[in-house]
Amino acid sequence: MISSATMVKFIKAGKVVVILQGRFAGKKAVVVRNHDEGTKDRPYGYAVVAGVERSPLKVTKAMGKKKTAKRSKVKPFVKIVNYNHMMPTRYGLELEQIKGTVSADTFKEPTQREDSKKVIKKLFEERYQTAVHIKCNMSRVPSVLNPTEEDIQLLLSAQCHIGTKNANTRMATYIHKRRADGINLINIGKTWEKLILAARVIASIENPQDIVVVSARPYGHRAALKFAKYIGAEAIVGRFTPGTFTNYITRSFREPRLVICTDPRSDFQAVLEASYVNIPVISLADTDSSLQYVDVAIPTNNKAKHAIGLIYWLMARAVLRLRGTLDYETAWDVMVDMFFYRDPEDIEKENAEAEIEEGDFAASAEAATGEWAVEGEATEGVAGIAAAADWSASRTTDWADETEAPATSSWEA
């Protein structure tokens, strides 16, 4: 138990505390008035606090005004709490209007307490609406970063919005709806927002070589290598060696400032080691992915080769545009097909077909030469007889010239 003498140093008006005991245990409250020395009725240190008994519920854009107003309501409470029954936090809340609503006479009559609750409720709801408005404005990106119609068509054609039948609790905010066959559909708008956020994080790294792209999934090998090539980062594809980020004795030891993963499940060793050394992690996440130790999750289909390649292509293009090396109005000359996974068997088939075509061409050339020679030998008619006669005549004449002279000389001798 913490003594009241120790709590005097921390508890003051405007301090946010957590109630430890009683009906409102675990609830947060703000100190309105503090009494360090106590009073005759309460000879101990205590404070008058105003807290939130029931917080506002989640609100979405699809909800109507009545439902939004109903779910945005706050249920407050006003209570006198002993110093030993509260724990101070590092947060503060400056609401001067609350101090005038709560006084020593507030707890004498129930009607006065209800009136003070109404005023506190109004102040808390206004504070909540202001915080929500600020949060919404912060999440908006400049118009130049908004997706074009072509980008949306690419995301849909690559099936980036197709999730799985299972859904993680932390991925529920990125799910648009559930189809009749049980497949969860990902919100493309959320995908684009997180993709731009990840690109802004990547572009903020001064040295691109301090970024490591990890992909143990085969479908992400080619995309990770191409992405690392165009942004100047380093890629680790295939098996991730344990200790790459934590054990400096290993040959593959790295000290990156940012880690980008393709799948939080297959790349969990890299994500775990990054959490040990406080390295931020950006990862592609499906509806069933675990977001443990992941700082920026890009909701997308990370099981299809076209979806993975397209997301890496879009992220690389966004990074180059943010760095200023690529103009927003001009298209990127690198095709998205370069980021797609290619099956080794298909590559071997293409190479074999190319070799067969080359062999066929050589064989056809030889056949054409052979046919020309055969046609010359098998020519019939006057030209053929003339050619044969010329050849035999030349040969007979040569032999006669070579044999006549020595024969004559021998008989004469």
TrEMBL record:
Domain of life (superkingdom): Eukaryota
Region of interest: Disordered: 391-413
Subcellular localization, as worded in the UniProt entry: Cytoplasm
Coiled coil: none
Keywords in alphabetical order: Cytoplasm, Ribonucleoprotein, Ribosomal protein
Ranges of residues in domain KOW: 10-37
Stored InterPro entries: KOW, Ribosomal_eL27, Ribosomal_eL27_KOW, Ribosomal_eL27_sf, Ribosomal_uS2, Ribosomal_uS2_C, Ribosomal_uS2_euk, Ribosomal_uS2_euk/arc
Pfam families: 40S_SA_C (PF16122), Ribosomal_L27e (PF01777), Ribosomal_S2 (PF00318)
Task performed by this protein: Required for the assembly and/or stability of the 40S ribosomal subunit. Required for the processing of the 20S rRNA-precursor to mature 18S rRNA in a late step of the maturation of 40S ribosomal subunits.
UniProt cross-references to PANTHER family, sorted A to Z: 40S RIBOSOMAL PROTEIN SA (PTHR11489)
Subunit structure: Component of the small ribosomal subunit. Mature ribosomes consist of a small (40S) and a large (60S) subunit. The 40S subunit contains about 33 different proteins and 1 molecule of RNA (18S). The 60S subunit contains about 49 different proteins and 3 molecules of RNA (25S, 5.8S and 5S). Interacts with RPS21.
Recorded family membership: Belongs to the universal ribosomal protein uS2 family.
Protein known as: Small ribosomal subunit protein uS2
Organism: Mucor flavus
Species lineage: Eukaryota, Fungi, Fungi incertae sedis, Mucoromycota, Mucoromycotina
